[in-house]
Amino acid sequence: MRREIHLFAGFSRNILYSLSFQITQRFASSSSTISPTNLETLCSNGHLTYALADMAKIGLQMDLQAYDTVLNECIKQKSVRGGQRVQAHMIKTQYKQPLYLGTRFLVLYSKCDCLREARQVFDEMPDKNVVSWTAMMSAYSKRSYGSEALDLLLQMLRSGSKPNEYTFATVLTCCTGICGLEYGRQVHSLIIKSNYESQLYVGCSLLDMYAKSGAIHEARFVFEDLPERDVVSWTAIISGYAQLGLDEDALELFRRLLREGMTLNYVTYASVLTAVSGLAAYEMGKQIHSHVIRSEVPFYVVLQNSLIDTYTKCGQLTYARKVFDKMPERTVISWNAMLVGYSKHGMAKELTELFEVMKKDKKVKPDKVTYLAILSGCSHGEMENKGLEFFDEMNEKDGVVPDIEHYGCVVDLLGRAGQVEKAFDFIKKMPIEPNAAIWGSLLGACLVHSNVEIGEIAGQRILEIEPENPGNYVILSNLFASRGRWDDVRNIRNLMEEKAVAKDPGKSWIEIDQTLHTFHAGDHLHPDINKVYDKMNELLVKLKEYGYSPDVSRVLYDVDDEQKEKILLGHSEKLALAYGLICSPEGKTIRIMKNLRVCVDCHSFAKVVSQVCGREVFMRDKNRFHHIVDGICSCGDYW
Ligand code: ZN
Ligand code: ZN
């Protein structure tokens, strides 16, 4: 065999020469007969150092298989040093290294995070095949160098090499970021041209790429076209829908998945639970929980965290706490899920108690989310002093630097406690530029505590920052109206018509027998809508006896009061509530979810309904939970 010196790149010649010098020394002193089979035994027992020593003694007898054995052990042990010695040995013995071993070196350096060395090995390969191209792309993709990998694909095509399914799957994982989807589509068309479209492995990677880029229709298309579907592809498509908030579609697919009798893993369950919490579909959540228990899926922390999140979002704090208490280990996400739950439900006592337990436990450190839950919980739970204490503590004791949201919580806290001036002073001293949310919270406090002077300043600032939000104009005009400043009210309304963008249409959901019913504001589409309006009229007579009257002052449309009342009665959460009364047995708790904040009128409507009809009402809006029992809401009428 003709042996050629092929100098490997990546390491200085000095090191290699000094190593080969040592090897020469060994040759000289070696007299024993060691066969390459010993190498295998040594390597399979993990004795890399001995194997390397033997390699030196074997000398010229080292063949492809022997080198491969040693190199594989180097890869397994991530030993760059071992790899260097193998390289040096090859130089010394003038071994002409085949392409296969070159690729193994590439894999070794890539595994050891020596990306530059891997690339040099790759560049100096006299020939390259699809395996070496793919190995180099995979090295880039694993370190998130997506564009380098895509570049390499172009070079590969130009060189005349043909990609295979592993090349495509590797490259597809690089199609992320701003241009990711565009590249992904180009790779897709290349896949079609190369006839790899019906390969399961490629299909799954395509599906994953589209789902992660949010191109859910394309993902669905690929999914439906897959030659066969496994739990990974089902999970990818379900979580794709859930990530985009298309929860109903996610659940629809999940039902289909169950019908097809597929065995699920914990990632699938966690994805489905995301969709369930998005919809606050409690019955469905409970069903999935019992599924998890029955199918004996291992209780990974991720799955338990999802369960806690689902139960708190469905208003079932007791269930959430049961899951939490049973966890053998907890991450900061588990603690946060439980704390956020208490905070959003206004359960300040449980919240602060659990926080004390967390601090005593000392296993996990509170983070920004923890403090957000604590501060916001104190604010809603009228624990002003405690909240201020925690705010001081967060940086001093736990080293958590407050964000704009934490400052926002303090402004809210002071505002709710009626300390409007103090809140205003606090904003002036903030080290960060206050945003619309902070001015909005001050403005809200000014309205409640009738402080028109500061309210005007806050209003002015907020209209500068966020002129498109109609809610701001409404609050400001109500503030002026409370002092009879009608000219200002008119100005603000004109300004709103000029600048504000129409808000998202209101939408509410209710789950009846595991089916979700969606109602839109002024709905005419729901199949039972006539029954709902009949129920509404019947209710209205009763509710008015109990002191409810539609709060027409909040409707900004320029129409007469009768029209305004009609608009108010068509609010989606009222329709969903009425539907709940029709469809669920007497005494059963009604759970509603709304995409926006619940309005003041619907809030008082629901309170009177809870009294008159003897029902508990759970309302989850964009910001928080309202647990209404016998005319009293957990939010304390402040949300
Ligand atoms: Zn409403
Ligand atoms: Zn409430």
Summarize the entry for a quick read.
With 639 residues, the chain is mainly alpha-helical. The protein has helices spanning 13-29, 36-44, 48-58, 64-76, 80-92, 99-111, 115-123, 130-142, 146-159, 165-172, 180-193, 200-212, 216-225, 231-243, 247-259, 266-279, 282-294, 301-313, 317-326, 332-344, 348-361, 368-380, 384-396, 404-416, 420-429, 436-448, 452-465, 470-482, 486-499, 529-545, 561-569, 572-583, 600-612, and strands spanning 507-512, 515-520, 590-594, 617-620, 625-629, 632-633.
Distance between the termini: 83 Å
Structural class call reads mainly alpha
Main sheet: strand order: 2-1-3-4-5-6
Helix fraction by DSSP (H/I, runs of at least 4):
55-70%
For the sheet with most strands, the description reads: 6 strands, mixed
What average pLDDT do the residues reach? Answer: 86
Total beta strand runs = 6
Structural shape: elongated
- Tally of helical runs: 33
Could you tell me the radius of gyration in angstroms? Answer: 33 Å
Bound molecule types: zinc ion
Q: Uncertain segments of ≥5 residues (pLDDT<50)?
A: 1-32
